[in-house]
Amino acid sequence: MWGDAEGDPGRNGDAGRAADRGGPGEALRFQVLGPVRAWRDGRQLKLGSPQQRATLAVLLLRDGRPSPPRSWSTRCWGEEPPPRAVGTLRTYVSRLRALLEPDRRAREPARLLVSAGDGYALRVPRTALDACELEDRVAAARRASGAGRHAEAHEELTAALALSDGAPLAGLPGPYAVVSATGSPNCPSPPRRNSSPAPSRSAGTRRRPAPCGCSPPNTGCASAPRPC
C-alpha cells in the first residue's frame, strides 16, 4: 500500500521502502473492517487508547502517503481538540513506532512509520491491511464474473464478506471514523459476516447486495474505509 510511490520519502530516505522488500512489515497484519486491531506473527498487539488507535487508522488509510499531525487533530478529537493535540499525536507516533518495530535500536531510522517532511507515513505491504484485501478480492470477483467464471467470483466475494468483523473503525472517536467507515453520514453500516443472502447458483450473473447494505445500492457508499 505505497500510494504515492514517487512522493518524498522524508528524512529516512528509502528506509521506509524496506518493508516492501521483505522487512519487518511482512510479519504485521492490520484490521480496519471492524475494531482497529494489529497482529505480529499472529499475536495481537496492544494498540493503546482510542485516540492512539485512531492515529494508526489515519496512517493506514493514507495508503503510504505522508500526513502532518496537525491535520489529524479534528479526526481524532472532533471540532475541539485539546490544546496540545499535535504534541500528543507525536507521542502516539513514537509509541506506535516502538510497538511496530520493537527491535529497532535507539536513533536507528524507522523503517515502517517514517518521518516525511513535517509529518509521517506508514509504509507496510498492501497485503497487510484487510481493507486492501477486500478491494483486491472484489476486483478479482469482477474479473472472474466478466470471464464467465461465476463459481470463482462467488468464492472471492464470499471471502471478501468474511473479512468484516463489524462496522469499520468501530470504537474510534471523532467524525473521521464515521465518514471513513461509511463514505456518507447517511449511509448505514456494512453488514456483518453471514448477514447477506447466499447468491444464486444459476449460470447468469446475479445482482449482489451492495457492500454497504444500502437498498438500492448507493454508488457513493462503500463498506471499506476510504483513504483520505
> Which architecture name of the domain at 10-128 does CATH use?
Orthogonal Bundle
User: What is the global morphology?
Assistant: globular
- Could you state the order of secondary-structure elements as H and E? EEEHHHEEHHH
What CATH first level of the domain at 10-128 would be assigned? Mainly Alpha
CATH superfamily of the domain at 10-128: Winged helix-like DNA-binding domain superfamily/Winged helix DNA-binding domain
- pLDDT < 50 runs, ≥5 residues: 1-22, 184-223
Q: Give the strand tally.
A: 5
Plain-language structure description:
This protein has 228 residues and is of the alpha+beta class. The chain has a domain of 119 residues: Winged helix-like DNA-binding domain superfamily/Winged helix DNA-binding domain (Arc Repressor Mutant, subunit A), CATH 1.10.10.10. The protein is 31% helix and 8% strand. The protein has 6 helices and 5 strands; from the N terminus they run E-E-E-H-H-H-E-E-H-H-H. A hairpin with a 2-residue loop joins strand 2 and strand 3. The two termini are 13 Å apart. The N terminus is likely disordered.
Question: Could you provide a short overview of the structure?
Answer:
The chain is of the alpha+beta class and 228 residues long. The protein contains six helices and five strands; from the N terminus they run E-E-E-H-H-H-E-E-H-H-H.
